Amino acid sequence: MSQEVEHVECLIIGSGPAGYTAAIYAARADLKPVMYTGMEPGGQLTQTTEVDNFPGYPAGITGPEMMEDFRKQAERFGTDIRFGYVSSVDFSSLPHKVVVDEIKTITADTVIISTGATAKWLGLPSEQKYNGFGVSACAVCDGFFFKGQDVAIVGAGDTAAEEATYLAKLCKKVYMLVRRDEFRASKAMVHRVMNTPNIEVIYNTETKEILGNGKNVTAVKVVNNQTGAETDIPVEGFFVAIGHKPNTDIFKGWLDMDDTGYLKTVPGSTLTNVEGVFASGDVQDSYYRQAVTAAGSGCMAALDAERYLAAKEHDVKVVS
Q1: Which end of the chain has the least Cβ crowding within 10 Å, N or C?
Q2: What's this model's pTM, rounded to 2 decimal places?
């Protein structure tokens, strides 16, 4: 049985702010983009309740509603949006080959990767139960909702230290839960935490359960991993800052990545080490990880793809 093969000019993998923005720009440039959404259309934002820091929404908007707006705008200009996941790629020659849902092969002149990153969680059922109702993996996104309240944050690296100090500016008290007897963060970040009066660092501590009233978080149950003693700490918010995993497994061996799997791009662009393949959004951004920066890099990726195709077309015409 022969496998179905389809050729496209511009293939977009992923459907968060980066992917949808890339689609809007690519469609307006008449690249006739085809997007595969992945198994979570809209990406991480679909797990977010209120979004108050994206320009253009003065009254705020929910994450799912905002991603629906992005989708409609991409479709308005002719983007072919399809539900499905990319199961493997072959970037060894042009056009690039991509297999969707393990059965369909797409060949593409350009590929824009916007597969994002997934927050690492502790794995507690209560963590997912209260996700968006007191539990968050982004202090910059959600810290504002806990102004003047008590919160806890779990983590010991630079990101956790940075988010703890950010929360300390907004919250009454920040409990920082560190699993070992020391930080993994840099000395400068540890110094910043230790010199912030309303951050209380609790060492040798693991989260056992997030407690709530069925609607919102009310406390976190922790255990001292040396003594076994359990304590309930009253908090209204619980932040997880133990890292993110970029969704890049299928690109291993093809694209350059850093030690944690984020795609490397040429500084000031979205170009990867493979001709005609571009990366945008959280899949290549381990630092900012915001919807607005993801959207901006999606715009860049589409412009880079458009210019790449224009240059190729010009070269062909010159040669002929």
Answers
A1: N
A2: 0.81
Domain ranges of the chain: 5-118+244-319, 121-240
Neighbour tally for 172: CB within 10 Å:
13
State residue 166 phi and psi, 5-degree precision: -65, -50
Same fold, 5-118+244-319 and 121-240: yes
Place domain 121-240 in its CATH homologous superfamily. Answer: FAD/NAD(P)-binding domain (3.50.50.60)
Q: Are 41 and 66 in contact (CB under 8 A)?
A: no
Q: How far apart are CA 166 and CA 180, in angstroms?
A: 22
**Which residues are marked as active site?**
138, 141-142
> How many Å apart are CA 23 and CA 25, to the nearest integer?
5
Specify burial of residue 137 (Cβ count, 10 A radius: 0-12, 13-18, 19+). Answer: buried
Displacement of CA 146 from its chain's centroid (Å): 22
Q: What share of the chain is helix, strand, coil (3-state, %, to 5)?
A: 30, 30, 40
CA gap 19, 167 in Å, rounded: 30
Q: Give the tens place of pLDDT for each residue, 21-74.
A: 999 999 999 999 999 998 888 888 887 767 888 999 999 998 899 999 999 999
